[in-house]
């Protein structure tokens, strides 16, 4: 588990309806950070159906979901749960911290 927070960007650089990808400084896990109407969420940037970048797909800010471009699996960005086939397993959700106009995240899984 990574104890160190990874800098994502400033709050001004991630506007509502946008996403940004970073790599955890310790585990190198790809993390997609989403701004959903001013609330920030972070998910592992990997589809649970097939190991592919979720960030390559469409972030639907109206629905709060991201769709994998490879096979169309969709995930709720708030909790990582799979919303439709072919994915049935959730994607990992990570903590977000915002301080002094900066956004941070980290891979907090026990077994990476």
Automatic annotation (TrEMBL):
One of its GO terms (molecular function) is 2 iron, 2 sulfur cluster binding. InterPro entries: Rieske_2Fe-2S, Rieske_2Fe-2S_sf. PROSITE patterns: RIESKE (PS51296). Residues 6-105 form the Rieske domain. Pfam families: Rieske. Keywords: 2Fe-2S, Iron, Iron-sulfur, Metal-binding. Gene3D superfamilies: Rieske [2Fe-2S] iron-sulphur domain (2.102.10.10). This is Non-heme iron oxygenase ferredoxin subunit. It comes from Thermomonas carbonis. The lineage of its organism: Bacteria, Pseudomonadati, Pseudomonadota, Gammaproteobacteria, Lysobacterales.
């Amino acid at each position: 588990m990574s104890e160190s927070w990874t800098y994502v960007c400033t709050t001004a650089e991630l506007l509502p309806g946008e996403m940004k990808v970073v790599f955890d400084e310790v585990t190198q896990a790809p993390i997609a950070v989403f701004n959903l109407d001013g609330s920030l969420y972070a998910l592992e940037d990997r589809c649970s159906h097939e190991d592919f970048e979720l960030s390559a797909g469409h972030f639907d800010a109206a629905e709060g979901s991201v769709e994998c471009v490879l096979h169309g699996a969709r995930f709720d960005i708030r909790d990582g749960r799979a919303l439709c086939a072919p994915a049935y397993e959730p994607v990992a959700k990570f903590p977000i911290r915002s301080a002094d106009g900066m956004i941070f995240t980290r891979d907090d899984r026990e077994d990476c």
